[in-house]
Design a protein that fits this description.
Helices cover 40% and strands 23% of the residues. It is of the alpha/beta class. It has one domain: 3-Layer(aba) Sandwich (Rossmann fold), CATH 3.40.50. Strands 3, 4, 5, 6, 7, 8, 9, 10 and 11 form a nine-stranded mixed beta sheet that branches. A two-stranded antiparallel ribbon has the order 1-2. Helix 3 packs across helix 4 and helix 10 crosses helix 11. It is globular. The termini are far apart. It binds S-adenosylmethionine. The site of S-adenosylmethionine has 18 residues, from helix 4.
């Protein structure tokens, strides 16, 4: 199958162990913000990616592709009710789940500064130019761990599809950059294995948007790999966490 050939070539000797770990249990942590709120279980690598944005109370934050909402919970808990958080997702069904998660897992004083919207992410750069101090773009991606565990998804996986997704990710990233205030920070993330959806997307945008520079993320989880522009957390070396890729970018003041 194309999926196995492609990743076996990409990861070489590492692939058999990585493949086994991708089939195994993930490593989720419980997000719970008080006795009376619903717990939410999120992969620890996803928590790391959301925290990497370095949100502080008072920030104006956009979570551009936010549903079902795990990373939005992390961002809201960092804002602590000061500033604002726009949790956006284009899919109506997934947005319902997002609203439910915000409503049921966040205390009222943190929730009151969170708004849910349903725009196409590529529109933000035009309609919300230089509006946010921090942006998380957790982009739609191949979701390779999910693909591996679903025969129907494995059958439609192709390098061509990965390339198509990379083009879409590049469009969303350009839009996120244009919506970022001068001096602002952005985290681009995926749960994809291929560099085509990760470093390559970042590399291309850095050429097109000279106001942006890549920033090293400090204090990586043990076992995580540094890549040219970001961090790749893969389950074979990170006790089941991931896959998560994230890269941090800053806009010149
Ligand atoms: C990887 S998931 C986001 C996961 C989420 N950040 C979390 O932590 O729960 C990607 C999301 O992007 C949304 N999406 C896809 N294309 C989009 C677009 N053009 N604009 C906005 N959202 C989009 C999908 O509906 C999906 O919910």
């Amino acid at each position: 199958m194309e999926f196995f050939d492609y990743f076996s070539n990409l990861f070489g000797d590492r692939w058999p162990a990585l493949l086994e770990s991708l089939k195994g249990e993930g490593k989720a942590t419980e997000l719970r913000f008080g006795e009376s709120f619903e717990p939410y279980y999120l992969d620890e690598a996803s928590v790391f990616a959301a925290r990497a944005l370095g949100v502080c109370p008072g920030d104006s934050v956009l979570d551009m592709c936010a549903a079902p909402g795990g990373k939005t919970l992390v961002l809201a808990s960092m804002l602590k009710g000061e500033g604002f958080l726009q949790s956006n997702d284009r899919s109506p069904d997934r947005r319902l789940r997002l609203s439910h998660v915000i409503e049921n897992s966040l205390p009222e004083e943190w929730r009151k500064i969170v708004s849910v919207s349903g725009y196409d992410g590529v529109k933000f750069g035009l309609h919300r130019k230089e509006s946010y101090s921090k942006i998380l773009l957790d982009a739609p991606c191949s979701s390779d761990r999910h693909v591996l565990n679903s025969l129907s998804h494995l059958e439609v996986w192709s390098v061509k599809r990965v390339k198509r997704l990379a083009v879409e990710q590049g469009g969303l990233l350009a839009s996120a950059i244009d919506a970022l205030k001068p001096g602002g920070t952005l985290v681009y993330g995926t749960c994809a294995l291929s560099p085509m959806e990760n470093d390559d997307v970042v590399k291309r945008i850095l050429k097109k948007r000279p106001s942006m520079r890549s920033v090293q993320i400090a204090e990586l989880p043990s076992g995580a790999d540094r890549t040219e522009f970001g961090v790749h957390i893969l389950p074979d070396r990170c006790e089941g966490r991931g896959p998560i890729y994230c890269a941090k970018l800053e806009k010149a003041p």
